[in-house]
Amino acid sequence: MRSALNNRLVLHILSFLLIIEAVALFLSAALAAIYDFDQIDHFSLFKSNGGFWPLIMGASIAFFIGILGWHFTKSVNKSVSKKEGYLIVAFSWVVISFFGSLPFYFSGYFPSFTDAFFETISGFTTTGASILTDIESLPKGLLFWRSFTQWIGGMGIIVLSLAILPLLGIGGMQLFAAESPGPTFDKIHPKVKEIAKRLWGIYVLFTLLEVGLLMAGKMPFFDAICHSFATMATGGFSTQNDSIANYSSYIQYVVIFFMILAGTNFSLHFYLLNGKVKQVWKNEEFRFYLGIIFVATLIISLGLIYNLELNSEKAVRDSLFQVVSIATTTGFVTTDYLVWPSVFWLILFLLFFIGGSAGSTGGGVKVTRILLLIKNSLLELKRLVHPNAIIPVRLNAKPVPQNIVIVVISFFLIYISIFALGVVILAAMGLDFISAIGVSASSLGNIGPAFGSVGPIENYAHLPHIAKWFSSFLMLLGRLELFTILIIFSPTFWRK
Amino acid sequence: MRSALNNRLVLHILSFLLIIEAVALFLSAALAAIYDFDQIDHFSLFKSNGGFWPLIMGASIAFFIGILGWHFTKSVNKSVSKKEGYLIVAFSWVVISFFGSLPFYFSGYFPSFTDAFFETISGFTTTGASILTDIESLPKGLLFWRSFTQWIGGMGIIVLSLAILPLLGIGGMQLFAAESPGPTFDKIHPKVKEIAKRLWGIYVLFTLLEVGLLMAGKMPFFDAICHSFATMATGGFSTQNDSIANYSSYIQYVVIFFMILAGTNFSLHFYLLNGKVKQVWKNEEFRFYLGIIFVATLIISLGLIYNLELNSEKAVRDSLFQVVSIATTTGFVTTDYLVWPSVFWLILFLLFFIGGSAGSTGGGVKVTRILLLIKNSLLELKRLVHPNAIIPVRLNAKPVPQNIVIVVISFFLIYISIFALGVVILAAMGLDFISAIGVSASSLGNIGPAFGSVGPIENYAHLPHIAKWFSSFLMLLGRLELFTILIIFSPTFWRK
After folding, report:
1. Which pTM value belongs to this model?
2. Could you give the residue ranges of the DSSP H alpha helices within B217-247?
3. Residue A492 to residue B413, Cβ atoms within 8 A
4. What is the pLDDT of residues B108-126, one digit of tens each?
5. ipTM, interface predicted TM-score of the complex
6. How near does any CA of chain A get to the CA of B166, in Å?
7. Measuring CA to CA, how many Å separate A376 from each of A353, A474, B470?
8. From B81, which residue of chain A is nearest by alpha-carbon distance?
């Protein structure tokens, strides 16, 4: 490892991402020009009710600064070490969220910059927590950009979790790599490019498929594309105030299906599309993921039929939808689960701490890690009975090295500790106990809806500003697998 | 390991413990005869208001069955393997609690057998959760037995955690052994006897000291001895309806001091009494334990002065008392902490998951384990920066082997998982969310007071019967370091 940090390279790559973001913003502005044409006031940038001018302004600023940064760091030393990798990952989400929030801020639909930033980072981290009290009043251009942030975030996450983090060795991610990590980090560029091409193809394909199936259920094109963006990114932003609640049961089942796909490891989709069905079905994480969804849905739907006397199709659909929405960390809502008897939303709450599969767009701890933890815990009992035998944890029939087991368990521990500290800090900021629990778990797990005053039919608007910033920080921490952010705060990182 | 379980030996030892319990019950009856003399109805066993006859009956039954069991298993093969060790540990607390609850049941002061059993196992596990709504109405004999169960439980725990569990290799307890474990489990008998003699001496000494100091503060002899029993066992049963709240601040400080002693590793007391002050002060667990108490007290007392405008001596005393009471898992109460702003009782709630030091009478996860977890988590960041270096966790300057790190982290994980499942199960039994959280954490951590409807000035009387049984099970699990109980439910344990 070289001694000096290559700051220029970090800036170079961040500038590049900013230019990409500017292109996405111009695209949204184009859409605003089509949909909100009559709202565009051609003589005043700031008094317009539409999203066009704010988007154009945001795009221009991002583009200008991106080009400047790109130009001044052009003569860069291209060799990259792990340290630069961490910095790029950590800062890209922050920088992109900052510039992405400008159109929201300029538009006047958001009461403060804090709110605009919260909504944007909630989008890019694919969380889906919203401060909007009347989503439907927003011009289409802004709504599109809002959903688009999630889709872009999801793209970033797939590459991050299947190509970049395994090379950085974050939180046991080596285990879930799309490819076995190369010998050095320097070779990352071509590998990342190749994996990205392959997996983004699947991501785009599924998104288009969902758009088609939603439109077949008579959802308008605009809403179909926004909801598909939010589904495939496991984000959860809707264009409707009632999320998915007022759509037909056909549409709800379509969304359920694609949420499940989005919460699955994208490497498995790649195998499946190449006809390797056996490899998919044999994958322990995938089976466990489906098992969790099945068992939780079974318990809750039986409970709803018995306790609330719902008819059984509605009970199964409601519980399946909520279970899948939380398990995949999407956060769409079809019913207010807080009116269920507490034991049933407590089961949902347990799902807050599992999350999607590794290599999916889902957040949270990740199914593989939980599976590894459970397996190791059961083996501890076996190890007590046979103290002299060496009994390794096996995942997909391969023994997992002890140091990786420690990394994975530590990840979970740090996750839980940050959650608990988060609750205390949010309570100190004035949140009641249940809301503090909800915001901490939901932000860290990139889910969106929570409990108490931030329940599924509520929003984050009423939180104090400082709590919105803290919640944003938790989203970032959770989305970037904790270590990427924490390491920057550690003294050893900056030493030498 | 031999193939057949030596059931006779298990029964032999349980019978022996039963005889000891009978002696303790006769002692309580003698005390009842002195204190409750005028309440004893000499002609009716069942209509008496005193505790004498119920205690005599309970003692006789325990004695009779103990002697019978002892006699019929006399010709026992004395060689003991780990499996018998587990069974003896797991069943002794259950058997002793069952027979110990008979006097309560016979007395008529307890509404049902469930309640009598709950109170007794809460005593023997040194939890201190009570179903009594008017403690002061109980005859002195029964109150004495109630406190006595805690003191006996504490005696059992000291030997269990410093001599037996390390030999069984439970939850990383090897690390905290009073002696390095011998080569085989067969040699356990003389070693346990020697450690017990040494540590029980200290336990008795501290108890007598506290009795003296409490009486110096004008507490009557009977209450002084009951409170000292409950303090040294980190139990928390009081003879007063208001726990320690109505006593003088001198008495409260005395109780604080002895709670701190009771929550400290008893090996350290042994070192201290032998003049090895340096060894005590250098002990990392001890420093961390005091550090936690100091920091939590500082935050809460400043918060109380600022928020509730208490005078500073009262604020410091109240917060120190509650912090120490929870941190050591005693559960005495001087103030209703639920009226504090939620962030302050949330800090107390974090302490629910730390517990006393290893080798103390305190329950919970144990300070050393938490210390090891924190150290390992911080090292994970260092390991990411230096991926090729081998960086072991060090405790008291000694590197901790990887497999022990895994055991300790797994212990915490299983602890947290049982807590979370416990919340869901208690909610399914009809408890509200906050009470379910409280009962689960408090039972598992052997603390006593909790939150919601089982807050510090409430009691467990109103819980449904099934929740009382479940809470009893959690107390047992937590007290016996999880694995001792869980292993009995594992199929590998019974195989072959």
Report:
1. 0.91
2. 221-232
3. no
4. 899 999 999 999 999 999 9
5. 0.87
6. 12
7. 18, 28, 26
8. A385
